[in-house]
User: Fold these one by one.
Assistant:
Number 1:
Amino acid sequence: MSSEDVELEARLEEQEVFEPAASFVEGANVSDADIHDEFEENWPECWERAAELLDWEEPYEQVLDDSNPPFYEWFTDGTLNASANCLDRHLDERGDEAAIEWVGEPVDEDNVTLTYDELHGKVNETAAALRDLGVGEDDVVTMYMPMIPELPVAMLACARIGAPHSVVFAGFSADALATRMNSADSEYLVTCDGYYRRGDPLDHLDKANEGLSGVDHDTDAVVVDRLGRNGDDFGHDLGERQHDWGELMADHEGATVEPVDRDAEDMLFLMYTSGTTGQPKGVKHTTAGYLAWTAWTSRAVLDIEPEDTYFCSADIGWITGHSYIVYGPLALGTTTMMYEGTPDHPDRDRLWEIIEEYEATQLYTAPTAIRAFMKWGEEYPAGHDLSSLRLLGTVGEPINPRAWKWYYKHIGDEECPIVDTWWQTETGGMMVTTLPGVTDMKPGSAGPPLPGVDVQVVDTDGDEVEPGRAGYLTVNRPWPGMLRTLYDNDERFIEEYWAEYSDIDSDDPDDWVYFPEDGAKIDEDGYITVLGRVDDVLNVSGHRLGTMEIESAIVGVEGVAEAAVVGGDHPVKGEAVYAYVIVEDGQAESEAFRAEIVEGVEDAIGPIARPERVIFTPELPKTRSGKIMRRLLEDIANDDELGNTSTLRNPDVVDDIREVVQGD
Ligand code: PRX
C-alpha cells in the first residue's frame, strides 16, 4: 500500500459521518431537505406522491381506510393493473429500450436483452397460455424457478390476468415446494428442467416433480426448457398435465390479453417466509399499495431513472427480487438486470465484469456478498472500470462499518452514496434508510425512517428507549406497502405482528403497533442501527430461516431424539446454523449420522439451511419448566462468556456441551 493509501484508510477508519457527493445530490430524484417534515405534516395524504407514480384505471377515493385496524386499506376504490403499469404504459416512449438485461451463467452463451416491446409480447402470450390452461382471476400460480427471464415473464403474466403468484426460491427443497402449494391451494406450477451452477447443468424438474407428488390436489405444470437452449438435457419426459412452455408460447404466438382491472386491495402475490413456528407464513401483498411503495422507494432511495441500467444481485425467489428487480424498477420504466450465476464463477470478478460490460448505474446487494468480496480482495474490483456506478445499496442484514467502508471505497470510489436499507418481506419495501440525495450516511446504521414512516425503538413496555440503548423496533403507523394479512390466517397475522405492542381489542388505529421482531438502537440524530432478530429466526447469508423449521427437519431423521438449533457468528454468512442433537438410545454419534442429519435438513428445506456444525450432546440446557435455553447454546457456539445459568434445571450440562464443542 502506498503512504497515500494508508492515510486514506486511516481517515476512512475514523470517519463516522459521510455526506453524499455534491455531484450525486445535484441530479438526485429526491433532494428536498424538508421532505421528512412535509410528509409528517401531511400524513397520510403524503402517500399520494407514491400513488401518482402509477397509472390508474379508476382513481382511488380515499388514501387510507383505517376503520378496521390492523386490516388497513390503501387507495380504496381505485383500480389498476400491475402488468400494465410495468409494461404497457412505457411502450410509446421506451418500447425499443431494454426492460430486462439477462446475463446467463455460462459465460460464452448469448445473453438475452428483452426490450419493453418484447417483454410485453412475451407477457401477453404467457397470459393467454395460462388462461387457456384454466388459470382464472384469484387462482394462485406457484413458480419454482431460478433466475431465468421466464420467471418475471410469468409473474407479470399472472398480474395481467389477476392471478396472484407465489414464487418459491429454486434452492428450496421438494418438501418446501409441496408445503407452500398445499398451504396456498395452488393448482398451477411454472417451473423448468434445470439451470446452471458453477458451470454445471443442474436438474430441477426432478425436485419439482417430487414436490408435486406431495401436493394434495390435482395440478397443472408448465415446464420451461432452460437447458435445452444449450443442448444440455436430462432427458425428462413431461408427465400428464405437464406442458412445455415453448409449445404453449408457439400456440399463442402474437396473442394479446387485456390487462384485468384489479381493485387496489386485490392480492398481487403471496410470499412465504419463515417465522417462529415450523410452518412458513404466506405474506399477502396487494396491487396498489405494494406497487406504489416499491415504485416510490425505487425512485427516492435507489434513485432509479428510466435511462439507468440498474443491477440488483438478489434472487427473485426472495422479496428483494420481487420488489427491486421486478416491480419497482419496471414500474419506473428502467432497465433492470438479472444474473443467473454466482459472483465467483468463473472467477471472483464476475460481478465487476458484468457491471463494466453493461455500464450498470446502481448495485444493490447483501452484506454477506460484500464480506465475501472483501475476503477475496480488492484486486478483483480494481481490475475493472466501475465508474458507471453512481449509487450502492445493501439489504438483508446488518452491515458492519468495516464492510461498509470497503464497499464505499473499493466499489463506489468514494463517489457513490450507500443506502443501507432495513425492511422485511412483510413491509413490501424499504422502511428505514437514508435518502441518498438528502441525508448524511453513518456506516453501520441504516439511517432515519423514510419520510412518512414512523419507526421507534422501545422497551418491553413499549416506551421509547434512550439513544444508545438497545430496544425493539416498532412501526407505529400503517404504510401502503405493508402486508395485509397472512394467507387464510387473520388470527396468526394479529398474533405474530400486532399482539405484542397493541391493544388488540381497540378499533382506534393509534392503539395498533406493528412489531417486526428486530432488536435495534437509535442515536441522538434519530439514526437506527438494526441489531438483528429477536425471535427464533436466523439470518444466514441474508436469508431468513426459522429455527423451528430446521429443528423439525432434524427430529424427522430416524435416530434423533431431540434437537435445538441456534445461530453462531460467521465471518461471511453473518450467522451459521448450529444444531445440537440428542440421539436415541442405540444410535451411534458417528460422522455418517451427522451426514444423515445434514441431508435431512437439505431434503426438508434446502441447502441454504445446511447446519455448519452438528453437535452431539447428551442433554440440552433447560429451565425448570422445560424450556430450552437457546441463549446459552448461542454463547457456546460463539465461544462467548456464558449468560446466567441459575435458572437451569441442569446447570452442569453447559460445561459438558462446551467441552464437546471445543473438542470437536
Ligand atoms: O432482521 C432484519 C433483516 O432481515 C429481516 C427480514 O428478512 P426478509 O423478510 O427475508 O427480508 C430480507 C430483505 C428485505 C429483518 O427483520 N434485515 C433486513 N435488512 C436489514 C436487516 N438487518 C439490518 N440491516 C438491514 N439493512
Note: The mean pLDDT is 95.
Number 2:
Amino acid sequence: MTQYRITLLPGDGIGPEIMAIAKQVLQVVGRQFDLSFEFTEALTGGAAIDATGEPLPPETLDKCRDSDSVLLAAIGGYKWDNLPRHLRPETGLLGLRAGLGLFANLRPAKILPQLVNASSLKKEIVEGVDIMVIRELTGGVYFGQPKGIFTTETGEKRGVNTMAYTESEIDRIGRVGFETALKRGGKLCSVDKANVLDVSQLWRDRMGELAKEYPSVELSHLYVDNAAMQLIRYPKQFDTIVTSNLFGDILSDAAAMLTGSIGMLPSASLGIAGTPGVFEPVHGSAPDIAGKDLANPLAQVLSAAMMLRYALNQPQASDRIEQAVMKVLDKGDRTGDIMAPGMNQLGCKAMGEAIIKALS
Ligand code: IPM
Ligand code: MG
C-alpha cells in the first residue's frame, strides 16, 4: 500500500464544507486503489488569525513542508478585510506560496459539455474551449522591492510596487509553459506588455530564447490587453498560456469565467521537484453562502484529483474521480451555482454523496 501524508488547509467561508467532501472522496478512492492517506489539518487565513493572531502560523508552514502534498480550500472573508495588510488572510496565502517556493500556478479552464450553457458567452464561442493558464506565482509586482507607502519630501504619500523578474525566474516558468504545451496541444502563447514595460521585454526575449529548445512547440506572443480581448473574442485559439504573476491573476479569472462556472475549476501551485505542491479551487471562500450547505464542492474534489495526478503520480485514481464528477453531471445533478432548468438541485452534502456513489 502506498502511503501519503496530506496537509489539509480548510481555511474560511465555505472552505471547511467543501474540504470535508474532498477528504471523503480521497478516502474512498484510497480504498479502491490501495493508497493510504494520512491527513493533518492546519490553520490558515482568517481561521488562523482568529486562533493565533496571524494568517500563516509557522506550524502551518512546517506541516505543509513536512507533507507529500497540500490541499487548500479557500481563505478570506469580510470579517478580516479591514485588518492591516500583514494580518490579512491574503498575506497568509502569499506567505504559503513564497514559503513553499510555489512559482508555477496551473489554472485550467475547460468547458464541460454538460455546462456549456452556463457560460455568459454564446455556445459557438465557448464549446470545446480547453485552456491552461500558467501563472508565475512568486515574483513580479506581487513580491518586487521596493514596495510600500512612503512619504515624499513634499509630505505627500506615494505608493510603490515594483514589477521585476530575473532571467532565471523567467526561464523556470517559461520551461513549465513549454513542457506543459508539449503534453497538450503544442501551442504556447506568452503574454506580456513588452510595448511598454522593460520587465516584459526581458520576458519576451527569454521566451524567444527558450523556444529554440522546444522546436515542436509553436510559440506566440500577445500583449496583455489584446490577450484579454482575444479570450473573450475567440477563446478556442488558445491552448497553453504562460504569463507573469499579475497578468496571470487577471487573465485566469477571465479564462475561468468562460466556463461560466468558477465553482468547477481546480488549480495547482508547484515548486521545484521534491517540494510539496498546493492544490486548490480557483474560486474564493464565498462567505455569503458559508455554512448554508449551498456550496459547490466540485472544484475542491477536482483539486484532489489534480493532486493525485500531478503530485502523487496516481493518474488512475485521478481519472476515477474526474469520471465520477462527469457521471454526476450527466445524471443532471447540479448545485445552485450551475443549476439549469430541468436539472436536479442539490446542496453541498448531497452533491458529495452523489460523487461518492458514482465512485463505486
Ligand atoms: C488568486 C487570488 C489571490 C491573488 C489573492 C487572494 C491574494 O486572487 O489566487 O488569484 O491575487 O493571487
Ligand atoms: Mg485572483
Note: The first helix runs from residue 15 to 33.
